[in-house]
Amino acid sequence: MNVALLQAAPDVTAHLRGVVDGASFLLQSALSIAAAVATVLALAPVPVQRAMACTVLFALAAVVSRWLPPAVPGGLLAPAVLFVLGAVIATGFRLRGVVAGLAIVIGGAAAGAAGGFGTATWEEMVGGVVLLAVIVSAGMLLIGNIEVPARIVRAATLARRMAGAWIAAVGVLLVALWLRRGG
Question: What does the alpha-carbon distance between residue 132 and residue 33 come to, in Å, rounded to a whole number?
Fold first, then answer.
């Protein structure tokens, strides 16, 4: 019995190393993190139970991005999503209902594609998905549960809209670069 445990230890550490590598790679993927943040900022505040359901939907969409068809260019998906979600945020809209669900799925797919899930091992994908889920759930819980003093509401609203404008601008620039390189 002890021999079996000793032989399994290298396998477990190799799998854990893969999980850590996936999370580390995702931390270096600014597009993936930006897609997660843009998705959170575009949504209206929701109760805790719905925030967790939205996080699971986002994570599942990120995992499914592994099997995106070749016709969907991964290098264009995340910048295009950043542009659209950034424009929504900059206009001051907050997505609700079915449109919010669609934004979560598209944002998750973009985050997964930008995070390299298409070429990742299953361990790396687990690490990346866990990190994305932590970012999205923390953001949704913070947006839904933080009470902002009345005198700061105007500044917070302006800051959110300015962030949206910057996110949209980054998306436009990256789409333009993608087109300039020949798509």
Answer: 7
- Helical residues (DSSP H) of 28-149, grouped into ranges: 30-42, 48-64, 74-91, 97-114, 122-145
Residue 95's DSSP bridge partners are 43
Percentages of the chain per state (helix, strand, coil), in multiples of 5? 80, 0, 15
Give the pLDDT confidence of 138-183 residue by residue, as tens digits: 999 988 777 778 888 888 888 889 999 999 999 999 999 989 988 7
Q: What is the rounded distance in angstroms from the CA atom of residue 177 to the CA atom of residue 162?
A: 23
Q: How far apart are CA 99 and CA 65, in angstroms?
A: 19
Q: How far apart are CA 172 and CA 78, in angstroms?
A: 11
